Structure to design on (174 residues):
């Protein structure tokens, strides 16, 4: 019995560590959707983030459904989704961008190296608009309807497999 009490603290620590590690490795819910879905975009006017694109404001989200892509030049998954966003833009989908915690020179370099699918890009240096729309990271893409209402959120880089879902959300937002 003395041996049991000697090893019990170590056994408890190992069990505790295993439970915590399993929760970190495979959490129950990887998606944390925005509570802003179904609500209007907050009013904002962001300054220019890239020299060859205009600034972005909430007034730009009227008339037709659009994609709002939250990205950063330092974000590796953002690079992976640029070709897909470019393809969507070539098919007439308007893609607006918000550059998070970035400098214009870095955004220009990013766009020059990887492509520019954006009609306009706003600079959100302090992430205030990112947080206001319920984005928790980069990249994230929102479908905004013709009245400026957030209709859909895609968390993470857009892949080819995600395009049908995004197209369906755009169609439903008309």
């Amino acid at each position: 019995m003395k041996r049991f009490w000697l090893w019990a603290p170590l056994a408890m620590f190992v069990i505790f560590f295993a439970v915590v590690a399993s929760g970190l490795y495979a959490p129950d819910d990887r998606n944390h959707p925005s509570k802003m879905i179904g609500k209007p975009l907050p009013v904002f006017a962001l300054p220019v983030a890239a020299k060859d694109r205009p600034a972005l404001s909430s007034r730009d989200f009227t008339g037709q459904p659009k994609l709002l892509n939250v990205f950063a030049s330092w974000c590796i998954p953002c690079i992976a989704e640029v070709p897909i966003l470019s393809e969507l833009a070539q098919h007439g989908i308007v893609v607006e961008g918000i550059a998070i915690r970035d400098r214009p020179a870095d955004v220009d370099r990013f766009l020059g190296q990887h492509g520019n699918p954006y009609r306009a890009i706003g600079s959100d240096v302090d992430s205030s608009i990112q947080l206001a729309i319920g984005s928790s990271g980069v990249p994230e893409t929102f479908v905004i309807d013709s009245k400026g209402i957030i209709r859909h959120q895609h968390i993470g880089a857009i892949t080819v497999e995600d395009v049908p879902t995004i197209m369906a959300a755009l169609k439903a937002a008309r």
Observations:
- The first strand starts at residue 45 and ends at 46.
- The chain is about 35% helix and 20% strand.
- The beta strands are 45-46, 56-57, 66-71, 95-100, 121-124, 140-144, 150-155.
